[in-house]
Specification:
- α1 crosses α8 (about 125-135), α2 packs across α6 (about 95-105) and α4 (about 70-80) packs antiparallel against α6 (about 95-105).
- The protein has 10 helices and 3 strands.
- It has a domain at about 120-218.
- The longest helix has 23 residues, at about 5-25.
- It is mainly α.
Length: about 220
């Protein structure tokens, strides 16, 4: 498995589309097509604001008293008329850059959409892709794999406007948490409960296929 910023962006976009397709299969056409497009643009470009050496540069700048968030720079690249990325998106639709930016930065959202959670959430497409790649790079090849990503995508539903994961996919959620825990311990030398690292997965038994309601197929 190769690991670079560009390949990660492609993997994040693929995971996003895979999950969108599964939601459509199980829940019907409940997502607005333009919101889906905005989310895809956000997933593909969420890391464009990273500087060389990634998070290490951010930490070094913080130590020097300089506050730098790659998410803020990503938003700038998505929305600044002088940015080539923003101009390219505007050729598709003038609203696309701003909508994609709202999928990257929560403060820009006027309301929460399910696609927001797919791009920026506890178990979003970004985290799933880089966790699989980081686990492989750190020597934990079997902790969280592409098969886990596919199973989690297949288990994702939208219920009452909120993302949920079918309870039957709980083993794959645990694989994700175990991989995050192992990576943080080995690479970042952090210890403790893996759920303390901002990981609060939504696991919903109510989204089983026989659940009645407008967001599930009978």
């Amino acid at each position: 498995m190769r690991h670079s910023r560009a390949i990660h962006a492609i993997g994040t976009g693929f995971t996003y589309l895979l999950t969108i397709n599964e939601i459509g299969q199980h829940c019907g056409p409940i997502l607005d097509a333009f919101h889906v497009l905005q989310g895809f643009a956000g997933a593909e470009s969420h890391d464009t604001g990273h500087s060389p050496w990634s998070h290490d540069t951010e930490h070094a700048l913080e130590t020097a008293g300089i506050h730098y968030r790659h998410e803020t720079m990503s938003v700038r690249l998505l929305t600044d008329p002088e940015s080539q990325l923003a101009r390219n998106l505007a050729r598709i639709d003038p609203r696309l850059g701003k909508g994609a930016a709202a999928h990257v930065e929560s403060s820009l959202r006027t309301r929460w959409l399910p696609t927001h959670r797919l791009v920026s959430g506890p178990i979003d497409t970004d985290r799933k892709d880089y966790t699989a790649r980081d686990a492989w790079a750190a020597g934990f090849e079997n902790l969280f794999t592409g098969e886990d990503i596919r199973r989690l995508a297949a288990a994702t539903r939208v219920i009452d406007g909120e993302l949920a994961i079918d309870l039957r996919a709980l083993p794959h959620v645990m694989h994700f948490l175990s991989a995050r825990h192992a990576i943080l311990r080995r690479v970042e030398h952090r210890t403790g409960d893996p759920t303390a690292y901002g990981l609060q997965p939504t696991v919903c038994a109510a989204c089983l296929p026989n659940r009645p309601g407008p967001t599930s197929r009978q």
